[in-house]
Protein: Gluconokinase
Organism: Kribbella ginsengisoli
Amino acid sequence: MQRTDADAGGSGGGRILALDLGTSSTRALVLSADASPVPGALARHKIGALYGAAGEATLDLHDYIEGLLGCLDELQQNGHLADITAIVLSSQWHSIVALDNNGAALTPVIPWVDTRTVGLDLGSSFDERAFHARTGAWLHRLYWTRRIPWLRSITSPAGFAGLPDLVLERLTGERVTSVSVASGTGTLNLADGGYDDEALAVAGVKAEQLPPIVPTGWTGALSSVYARRWPGLVGVPIHPPTGDGAASNVGSGGYDASTAAVTVGTSAAVRVVHPIEDAPELPWGLWRYRVDDQRAVTGMAFSAAGNLHAWLTGVLNLESPEPTGVEIGSSNVIAIPFHAGTRPPDTVPGGSGVYFGLSFDDSAADLLAASLQGASLEIDRGLRMLDDLFGRPLEVVLGGGGIDASAWWRRCLTATFDRPTDVCAEPEVGARGAAAVALGLTPSPGGEHLEPVAAEVERVRALRPRYETLRALAVQASTETSNW
């Protein structure tokens, strides 16, 4: 079943079931009609990725989907699946699964953290800058233009799909994808919303081997095999998934070109949602994906954020997640947060994190403060590029688990950006954003408002030149080391 009229699947004042397909967990939660979480209506299934010495990082597809279905069972058992009038999905971008002739999985789910790849020889006539401007992506292992040739080198696939496509197929019986999810594959022509001919040629695949792209107004319905399992969901419209970055922006309150949303979860990103029509020319250092049929999201991502915070608090055995007693911008230690490498177009490999200026006077709190400051300065690099792109200093909203975990980090980001920030009070920004995209909602941050403190701003400003010099040295050293 599918409907493509603009009004299909509106919440109609009822409740919304949101499925959030993350890398470390999958969650099902119930939202009110305004996309606020219903207290207690949350079920979570933890995901354990399998890692290997050769760069492997895989997710078990069967375990993932069965875990998600188990979350729905839990909500059902607790009486939370009544009065549901819409089902929405937020999903990790970039994942891929190779499929056989019958559509069965030949491989586990390959998420963005997997580093295995093969080289591409496209000749001197290939213009990667024009390719990037058209697709919003680079020829990097994150994207299907590199993933598919690598998968062909290890198996004999007949087709390919992403994790959200296969979840949607399990629920509805239809294997389709959204323009948002397709944009994260690096094979989408951003302007027309269809697969890009050159990207398909680079990947060595035909469009019919990939899931068809459905319009934003498309809805599916729950397969009849689940009618007895979740009777309250029968006939409820299921909306196409939204990529988690786009969903997080909208869910934080950053849904137009006046506002940059800074999301700090396991990794971090700074992004701006804007109309796809007459979009500003994309700089080489930023990516661009789609939110829906009318909007794009442009930004920069960073591999070290909440994962860095969690690692350091564990390694140092800190009782508090805060660098207690350390003033923002005051630490003599400079941390270059390349522990997990960098995202494209930079090519710094994982294991390149550096601490400069250590002395016997430094405490665990100094190291934590330096790490959070380094991550803040990295995010600020992306924010400044977006300021330039959109021709003005952007308003900023902060959201995500890392933001929620540390008041010191919120203040540090505000001082580093040297502008006021608003904090999103809702931690489930992806689920909230998926509901907002599907149903046309415009949520507000709803949290605290922070003003930059002049003394903190000055200390960070004085710190910045030293940080940039040492960052350049770290990039050079990591490049030289990778060539040994």
